[in-house]
Amino acid sequence: MIVASAPASSANLGPGFDVLALALAPRCRVAVELAEGWEVLGPDGGDHEGLQALVWGVAGAAPPHRVEVASDVPIGKGLGSSAALRVAAAAALEASSGEVRLERVFRNAAEAEGHPDNAAAAVYGGLVAVGALGEVRRLAMHPSLVVVVAVPDAVLSTAEARAVLSAEVSRGVAVRTAARIAFLVEGFRTADPDAFREAAGDEIHETPRRHLSPISFRLGFAARAAGALHAAWSGAGPAVLAVTTEERRDAVRIAMEEALDGAGGVLCPGIDREGVRIE
Question: For the domain bounded by 2-137+272-278, which CATH number is listed?
Fold first, then answer.
């Protein structure tokens, strides 16, 4: 039996739609072994159609396997649960057949996902950017930075969230987004509050989705008011990721808990810097 695991991830990080992502400590584990026919089992030992679709989407020409999935990544919250599963499954199936090539695992999972950011973070770990030609680069993240993630009870599917987005944006939105990305990357590198301040907000995906998850905007406001350097929807939401320091982490956590008002929970996950691994 081969076991692979991949981390959760927070994509977009505000203005970096389909470009930036950060790998987080919760993991999805996938165990595979050769079998006479395909069998995909969830944590409860049951055969789940949703898990089958995710696994088969990255199986390619792999021979039949028995696949067992166990995950600590919240589902439908914007924390890359499908990307973590696809990356772990692709890596485990490759390891079962021979050599694991990270670039191939990434391409396979990104194609199945339909967007590359979560898959890149799940494969390579840390803070990543995906270029226009598909190249992945690890970006610098200042060691003083930590994250707090508020996870509302509500679920918001990626498909539903993407359906409300416009196919085109104005020149002004494009220019402001480019500026925000530049300052966001600098903020992560230096932990400079002024850089993060210039990176605040997003007009490509957060504003158009506001009506789908009003709590996400309230959580971001609460985090910044409590001293967070940056706050953004985690992927398609409804989870919200706040970037802060050790000194302000508890204040940010409490503020986000109060904003949730019992309708969800707050996590203080570590940054995963390893990415996918064969266990």
Answer: 3.30.230.10
